[in-house]
Structures are given as structure tokens and as C-alpha cells.
User: What shape does this take?
Amino acid sequence: MALDLDKMSEAELKQLQKDVEKALVTFETRKKAEARKALEALAEEHGFSLKDLVDGKASKGGSGKGTGVPKYANPADPSQTWTGKGRQPVWYKEAIEAGADPSSLEI
Assistant: This one.
């Protein structure tokens, strides 16, 4: 399909641009779905599910980064944990400012 861009109006060119951008997004989505299907088939061929092979958890998409293993816990509420990476939680900052040794907060 050959388009003569020189003969198209500005509105037609902008619509073409939108159509191309949409096509690129759906193309990537389709390719990812095909890749996932192929990986699931390969995993099943070896007696596993894709979920079993990806850290034992289903992938949630996104960046591919997991939550990590907690390294620190809040002594006042052990359900609040932190891996030691990224932004420090408020409870951790407050404990350090109050004079707690980071090693005392380790799990």
C-alpha cells in the first residue's frame, strides 16, 4: 500500500499518525500474547506451568520487578516489612531517628 503523503491534508496526516500509533500498540500487545502462549506451551511440555517457573508466582506484568524478600520488620507491627531497597518506610525512619540500630530491626 503506497501512500502519497504529499497529497494528504494536515487532518489526514494527523489521523494517519494516530492510526499508526494505535497499530503499533496493538502489535506489541499481540506479540506479547503470542510469546506468553509459546512460553506456556513450552513449560507445559516439561511438566510445569509458566507460573511455577516464574519465581513460583504469577507475573503481574509491568516492569518485571518483584517485591523482594523483607529484611527489616517494624517491632511495633511485624506485619510491616521492608526489603532494605527503595524508599525507607516511615516506621523505619522514625525508629532510626529515635536511636534504634538498623540491625535491631532486621528479621
Notes: The radius of gyration is 25 Å.
